[in-house]
Specification:
The protein is mainly alpha-helical. It contains 29 helices and no strands. The radius of gyration is 29 Å and the shape is rod-shaped. It starts with a helix and ends in a 10-residue tail after the last helix. The C terminus is likely disordered.
């Protein structure tokens, strides 16, 4: 006679430990899920993978947390509902511990759903082996909290691939540290969305390599990221006129004054009038006479009161009269 859910709920740890694989395999999903956390954690590693795979979708976080790393190491990873790990949802994943997830390899991590991975505690997420990071479901990255992103190690960031980074949004990107970002591969960084690039913290932006940025990508840079950009980076970024034209007013207005030293005199007249209109006196103070002479009449006309006051105080009168 099969053990009922009611009977399973009364099973002791000693009884659960004594169950053989065949007996465990005869438990219904409901009966297996009715075991107390202590009893479920007492099932031997030899018998655990005989538990009905459907039971794993019914477990509580407490039951999952009670499982041993030895049990986790032998869970089946078939990429379908017949796989035990595949059936973990957000509720079950919330109970996974660091010690448990450490024993999962890349093929195991690959079958965890995006909902399950996104429900992992930050410390658990940080314990995923680096070789398995690129097997995390792409969509999970869109649902990570700032705390989860911060918990990832630089070594794990090195394993993130170009298929995953497009799912990183503003919330996630803003939590990335410079140490993490420095480990992203060039391909992964290049695949970041416009929202993500615009949300990067100034300390992260200061490590960006702009030599491959297109005009479109330059337009992704925002006031959030601007303060961290150096004059050397600006010099690399604005090496072509179309990239200069792609810079937004929000970005230009938030640049550190010293960054303006990096503007190429040849292309500074490609800044949009919207961008020029927000330049402050402290910023224009870092533009050389050579650079100033390249500003067009249209650009000069839209300079703000603060910038014009600085120029007047310095006696600058050599703005070009050639409109563009």
């Amino acid at each position: 006679q099969a053990i009922t859910a009611e009977q399973a709920a009364q099973m002791t740890t000693a009884q659960a430990k004594a169950l053989l694989g065949a007996t465990v395999g005869n438990l219904s999903a409901e009966a297996a899920a009715a075991l107390s956390p202590a009893a479920f954690g007492a099932i031997t590693a030899e018998a655990i993978n005989d538990v009905d795979a459907d039971a794993f979708a019914l477990l509580s976080a407490a039951q999952v947390a009670a499982m041993t790393p030895a049990q986790f190491a032998v869970l089946t990873n078939t990429n379908s509902t017949s796989g035990q790990l595949y059936n973990f949802g957000a509720t079950q994943a919330a109970g996974i511990t660091s010690a448990q997830i450490k024993v999962l390899d890349a093929s195991d991590v690959a079958v965890l759903s995006s909902d399950a991975v996104a429900a992992l505690k930050p410390a658990t997420l940080a314990a995923i082996v680096t070789a398995a990071v690129d097997d995390i479901a792409n969509e999970a990255f869109a649902n990570f909290t700032a705390d989860q992103i911060k918990a990832l190690t630089p070594a794990q960031f090195a394993g993130i691939d170009a298929g995953q980074t497009p799912y990183i949004g503003a919330t996630q990107a803003n939590a990335i540290t410079s140490a993490q970002f420095a480990k992203l591969t060039a391909a992964a960084a290049k695949a970041l969305s416009s929202d993500a690039i615009g949300a990067l913290a100034p300390t992260v932006v200061s490590t960006l390599k702009f030599n491959t940025f297109t005009a479109t990508e330059a337009g992704y840079l925002t006031a959030t990221s601007a303060p961290g950009i150096t004059s050397k980076q600006i010099a690399t970024l604005v090496a072509t006129n179309d990239v200069v034209a792609g810079l937004t007013a929000d970005f230009v207005g938030a640049l550190a004054p010293a960054a303006f030293k990096g503007f190429n005199a040849t292309y500074i007249n490609d800044l949009t009038t919207d961008a020029v209109s927000v330049i402050k006196g402290t910023q224009i103070a870092n533009i050389s006479t050579t650079q100033l002479e390249q500003l067009t009449q249209k650009q000069a006309y839209v300079l703000g009161t603060d910038a014009l006051a600085y120029l007047k105080g310095k006696g600058y009168t050599t703005l070009t009269s050639e409109a563009s």
